Amino acid sequence: MTTSTQYAVDRIVLIPDDIDLSRSPLAGAIEAETYVLGAFNPGLTRLDNGNLLMMVRIAEALREPIYDGQVHAIRWAQDGYHLDAWPLELADTADPRKFMLRGGGWKIMALTSLSWLLPVEMSSDGLEVIAIHYDRAIAPQRDYQCYGVEDARITKVGGRYLMTTCSVSPERHSTTLYSSADALDWTLEGIVLDHQNKDMLIFEGTIDGEYWAQTRPLGDLYFAYPPESEWRAGPSINLARSPDALHWKPHDLPGIRPHAGTVATARIGGGTPPVLTSDGWLTLWHGVEPKEIVGIYRTYWSLLDRDDPSKVVRTDHKPLLEANPALTRPIEDQMYLRDVVFTTGIADHGDSYVVASGEADLACRITHIPKSRFG
């Protein structure tokens, strides 16, 4: 697969080999060898010094999760990190990132890795690593994060940085909020969405004094649209409003929905926090075409009305970004997924946007996309 549009600046800027696990929050905490399964899905924001900051998800995995007839997972607790073991005959290990446990009457999953967040300071164009801030890494610190902290999305509103993350535990699969004055030192504000929601994105600005966000609640049941509808039933991008960024009320009207006329966006979810342009709120989002275990992930875009984000002003059914095997060829030996680009950050850069993505759940990709592309 090749990208539908070639961009002059489009490259991998951070790979697993760049991460020093001797400085990991897990270093020395468990008696098992770990490695970086992926350094990917970076949140992105611009610091006060003009540099960019990527908040990179580090999936630290067990080198050998299966041994002694059992499959193992890393779990954080108040007294430290632990290795949990399940009989191999109870587990489906087809996906290298996780395993499913049989016999519970519903889907039960455990992970072969534990994710934590690493701030990586980049040059103003996002192409050069300036500093890796291991001392400011974000690791689990509450029971509801015991299986990891994933997929940061960063928004700056009124001089304050807000970062949503997905926190994973047996208790819940929730969205948590962090806040910061400088995007380097973060305070955990707690859970803001108490249900499975992988893609909460806070708008970079308020509307009539309210915070807005895109959400994507998940479930195993979706009701059908009428047979002639232009929409396809399934996960979609919803909206929510808040007076303080902590307490959120779902918006009554739907947001972006998958179209019935294509399977390329059969499942969709938010990508980058919406940024305000002269034409409305620009949002980049992902569409997933069913294929094998994971599917094909591509990036699309829409412009939303600046006063009513439930209205789509303009969109494009052709992908903005697709997975690019040429970019990951130097790390081919580490590849375990194909056909996945997952866009997670955007920053203004004059006549273009710096767009940050996770490539193949493995590395960080930076693409400069001209603003004219959204005209």
From TrEMBL:
<dbReference type="GO" id="GO:0016798">
    <property type="term" value="F:hydrolase activity, acting on glycosyl bonds"/>
</dbReference>
<dbReference type="GO" id="GO:0016757">
    <property type="term" value="F:glycosyltransferase activity"/>
</dbReference>
<keyword id="KW-0378">Hydrolase</keyword>
<dbReference type="Pfam" id="PF04041">
    <property type="entry name" value="Glyco_hydro_130"/>
</dbReference>
<keyword id="KW-0328">Glycosyltransferase</keyword>
<protein>
    <submittedName>
        <fullName>Glycosidase</fullName>
    </submittedName>
</protein>
<dbReference type="InterPro" id="IPR023296">
    <property type="entry name" value="Glyco_hydro_beta-prop_sf"/>
</dbReference>
<dbReference type="InterPro" id="IPR007184">
    <property type="entry name" value="Mannoside_phosphorylase"/>
</dbReference>
<keyword id="KW-0808">Transferase</keyword>
<comment type="similarity">
    <text>Belongs to the glycosyl hydrolase 130 family.</text>
</comment>
<keyword id="KW-0326">Glycosidase</keyword>
